[in-house]
């Protein structure tokens, strides 16, 4: 028995050493560059002369013509050809927050990150160009999802879904305001005039979202549901936007809005302190606001709730509400699981910096969590996604030697216009979807939904929850990678 225990210990030590070697070998700088490059593959509209994802071409140039607006530009949210403004705006907010917190570590990639934000912000300005109206989506999603077609070939209806004073949509409007506000901070020094235009519009859109309240699923229906219905209500987006507006303007009316409404988030949102993503903003609100109220008389409820969020994520916490696979990937219910791993890791990393600034730790019942522990957990998720996992697979396309080859993505899986100039009609793309061949176009930097709870990934194009990339998976990862590019040697453990 003694020898068996010794051998088991030696085996465990060997496994740990291998894992540490893998972690040490990660090139976070390369991953960062590719993570940002992904957004160029999602671009809609007239592509610029410096477009680096060269197998993509111009698409959807007439978007908005059905409502007398120019709605060209922006991003396709995932592997389809619809522009859903709600998750697009959230992705923009997260890209901006990434630059604000960690831009100093990005090096030459900071300009590429700014370009990715500006591509979205320009579109969001167009989407809010008519007072009292906010675009919610462009492209009929049911018709689009019925086709496997390149964005350059689209012949499905490009219906514009717009909320207004009689058919409101407070969540998409407020998230748009948050995105514009956060982006304005990013461009404050580099382009003051553009920054002012963004914050002016953000204030206008927030006022509209607040004054004309309503759920956008009731106003635009099948234009966004069941794809991006908001299950948490719109008050969290209003508070989120007000927090960003206060951070930008320092105007007390926005702080007053946050203070007056933070305790009134409707159930189940009031119990969702650990939720953060395109749908629910609770944990993000508490972490963001903690950045300026920590160790002040107004720290409650933000800091206590942010601390509670951290304790719900740390693997050793008695209050843990997430699960971890045997290989170490964080899991929450729902598809596209890596969205949770990237978004929650981003919050852990940001909050760790705030704690460092105030010499803080967090009490999670039986133990105290230090800022470095938060960083360790975040880094563990990064390393898993980049290949330190049981399958030895990077879930970022184009990173490392082994990555998903058959991602659920129309433009990537169909031949490019350069290779196949002829129009590919709606159903003519089906054989490409059904093919077992690797995608002909590498969507470099795309992070897919990821493996199942057993750390298995079949690399199956038809399995959208696992094989489809999205902008809101990548956006928080940009900031995380920038930090670990600068501080790569932090040891990790689950």
From TrEMBL:
Catalytic reaction annotation: Endohydrolysis of (1->4)-beta-D-glucosidic linkages in cellulose, lichenin and cereal beta-D-glucans
Keyword Hydrolase assigned: yes
Signal sequence bounds: 1-25
Domain named Glycoside hydrolase family: residues: 28-481
Primary enzyme class: hydrolase
BP-aspect Gene Ontology terms: cellulose catabolic process
Keyword terms: Carbohydrate metabolism, Cellulose degradation, Glycosidase, Hydrolase, Polysaccharide degradation, Signal
Region (Disordered): 451-470
Xref: SUPFAM superfamilies: Six-hairpin glycosidases
Ranges in a coiled coil: none
E.C. numbers: 3.2.1.4
Catalytic residue list: 408
UniProt-listed InterPro entries: 6-hairpin_glycosidase_sf (IPR008928), 6hp_glycosidase-like_sf (IPR012341), Glyco_hydro_9 (IPR001701), Glyco_hydro_9_His_AS (IPR018221)
Pfam families registered for this protein in UniProt: Glyco_hydro_9
Single GO MF descriptor: cellulase activity
Database matches in Gene3D superfamilies: 1.50.10.10
Family label: Belongs to the glycosyl hydrolase 9 (cellulase E) family.
This protein's name: Endoglucanase
Organism: Hibiscus trionum (Flower of an hour)
Lineage summary: Eukaryota, Viridiplantae, Streptophyta, Embryophyta, Tracheophyta
């Amino acid at each position: 028995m003694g020898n068996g225990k010794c051998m088991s210990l030696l085996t465990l030590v060997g496994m740990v050493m291998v894992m540490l070697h893998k972690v040490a070998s990660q090139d976070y700088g390369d991953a960062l560059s590719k993570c940002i490059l992904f957004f160029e593959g999602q671009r809609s509209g007239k592509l610029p002369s410096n477009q680096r994802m060269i197998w993509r071409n111009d698409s959807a140039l007439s978007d908005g013509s059905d409502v007398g607006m120019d709605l060209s530009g922006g991003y396709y949210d995932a592997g389809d050809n619809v522009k859903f403004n709600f998750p697009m705006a959230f992705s923009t907010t997260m890209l901006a927050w990434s630059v604000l917190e960690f831009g100093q570590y990005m090096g030459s990639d900071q300009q590429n990150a700014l370009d990715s934000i500006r591509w979205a912000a320009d579109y969001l300005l167009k989407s809010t160009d008519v007072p009292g109206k906010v675009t919610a989506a462009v492209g009929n999603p049911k018709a689009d999802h019925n086709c496997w077609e390149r964005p350059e070939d689209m012949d499905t209806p490009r219906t514009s879904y717009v909320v207004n004073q009689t058919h409101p949509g407070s969540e998409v409007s407020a998230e748009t305001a948050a995105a514009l506000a956060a982006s304005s901070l990013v461009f404050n020094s580099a382009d003051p005039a553009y920054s002012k235009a963004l914050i002016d519009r953000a204030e206008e859109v927030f006022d509209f979202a607040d004054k004309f309240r309503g759920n956008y699923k009731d106003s635009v229906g099948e234009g966004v549901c069941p794809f991006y219905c908001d299950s948490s209500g719109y008050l969290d987006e209003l508070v989120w936007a007000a927090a960003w507006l206060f951070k930008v303007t320092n105007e007390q009316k926005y702080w007053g809005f946050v203070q007056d409404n933070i305790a009134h988030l409707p159930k189940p949102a009031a119990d969702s302190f650990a939720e953060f993503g395109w749908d629910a903003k609770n944990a993000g609100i508490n972490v963001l606001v903690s950045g300026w109220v920590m160790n002040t008389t107004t720290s409650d409820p933000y800091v206590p709730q942010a601390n509670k969020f951290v304790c719900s994520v740390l693997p050793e916490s008695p209050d843990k509400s997430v699960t971890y696979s045997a290989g170490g990937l964080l899991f929450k219910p729902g598809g596209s699981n890596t969205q949770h791993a990237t978004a929650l890791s981003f919050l852990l990393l940001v909050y760790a910096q705030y704690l460092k600034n105030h010499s803080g730790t967090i009490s999670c019942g039986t133990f105290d969590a230090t800022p470095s522990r938060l960083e360790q957990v975040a880094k563990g998720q990064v390393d898993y996604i980049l290949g330190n996992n049981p399958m030895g697979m990077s879930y970022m396309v184009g990173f490392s030697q082994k990555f998903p080859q058959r991602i659920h993505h129309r433009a990537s899986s169909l031949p490019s216009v350069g290779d196949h100039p002829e129009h590919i009609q709606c159903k003519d793309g089906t054989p490409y979807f059904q093919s077992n061949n690797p995608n002909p176009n590498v969507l470099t930097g795309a992070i897919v939904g990821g493996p199942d709870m057993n750390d298995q990934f079949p690399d199956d194009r038809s399995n959208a929850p696992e094989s489809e990339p999205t902008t809101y998976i990548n956006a928080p990862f940009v900031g995380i990678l920038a930090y670990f590019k600068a501080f790569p040697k932090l040891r990790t453990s689950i």
